[in-house]
Design a protein that fits this description.
By secondary structure, the protein is of the alpha/beta class. It contains three helices and four strands. The longest helix has 16 residues.
């Protein structure tokens, strides 16, 4: 999976491309850690437009990121979900847990 990061003001945008699975979950976790720790970042948005596949380990990581962000008074949002990814997120009721952009 390819990961690119943009920050502006109090927001961080993380664009993901490729398969979001067990292997790539660790890469995202490592990329998100400093963003969540940054005092100026209050919202972390994951852009999933280029993600065609998501598995249960990725769902687990999303929950972990949400929990860590909440403890720090921050928000994790999901954006531009592809239809296949949105279907998985809907089945797992993640649309109720995460702001969708």
């Amino acid at each position: 999976m390819d990961i690119s990061i943009e920050t502006a003001a109090d927001r961080a945008l993380v664009r993901l491309a490729g398969r979001f699975d067990t292997q790539s979950s660790m890469a995202l976790r490592n990329a998100a850690r400093p963003l969540l720790a940054a005092p100026e970042v209050s919202r972390l948005t994951l852009d999933l437009a280029q993600v065609g596949y998501i598995d249960s380990s990725a769902l687990g990581l999303l929950l972990l990121l949400r929990e860590q962000a909440t403890e720090l008074g921050k928000t994790v949002a999901l954006a531009n979900c592809s239809p296949d990814v949105m279907r998985v997120l809907s089945i797992a009721h993640f649309h109720k847990l995460f702001p969708m952009e």
